From TrEMBL:
Its EC number is 2.1.1.171. This is 16S rRNA (Guanine(966)-N(2))-methyltransferase RsmD. Keywords: Methyltransferase, Transferase. InterPro entries: DNA_methylase_N6_adenine_CS, RNA_MeTrfase_RsmD. Pfam families: Cons_hypoth95 (PF03602). One of its GO terms (molecular function) is nucleic acid binding.
Length: 179
């Protein structure tokens, strides 16, 4: 995996093979950040990266100047890897080892962008729980966006607060906003 843009542009990060992850592809990540770049100044936002895995998305935000990043994952190896990598690059990433759903139930902090990359084999009911908890617990700031990554074969358009989706290869991003 590599960092697409920002101060760490071009840097390659090699995650241990034993981590239970599927990092967002460079093509999909570049497309996502092109969309977000047209809506936000990255140095003015707060980001919550759910099911953060290798930290791929968090590193991209940090490279682009985001100072407030929280990465949440239940896997100790993933959290350890993100901590080591962010420390090596001096990136401002705060990690939380937690079940994402428990974290969303208990969190009170609001964010500008919440990015969730759960396992693609989740049941639709588990995907639905993410926006449900985010909006019920008011975890997005005004003008904030929830982005959920999933397989292009998963349809989330029926969920409340759904705005639109974009497909990139086998990946899709669904965007949720409070109107």
């Amino acid at each position: 995996m590599r960092i697409i843009s920002g101060v760490y542009k071009g840097r390659k990060i090699q995650a241990p093979k034993k981590l239970p992850v599927r990092p967002t592809t460079d093509m999909a990540k570049e497309a996502l950040f092109n969309i977000l770049n047209n809506q936000y100044y990255f140095d003015d936002i707060s980001v919550l990266d759910l099911f953060s895995g290798t930290g791929n998305i968090s590193y991209e935000f940090a490279s682009r100047g985001t100072e407030q990043i929280t990465a949440v994952d239940a896997n100790y190896g993933c959290i350890k890897f993100i901590n080591e990598t962010s420390e090596a690059f001096k990136m401002p990433i705060n990690t939380v080892k937690s079940d994402v759903f428990k974290f969303l139930e208990n969190s009170k902090q609001q964010h500008t962008i919440i990015f969730a990359d759960p396992p693609y084999n989740f049941e639709v009911s588990l995907f639905a729980k993410i926006p449900e908890l985010v909006f019920k617990n008011k975890l997005l700031q005004a003008e904030g966006t929830l982005v959920v990554e999933h397989s292009k074969h998963t349809d989330l358009s029926h969920l409340e607060y759904y705005s639109y989706s974009k497909n990139y290869g086998g990946n899709a991003f669904s965007f949720f906003v409070k109107n």
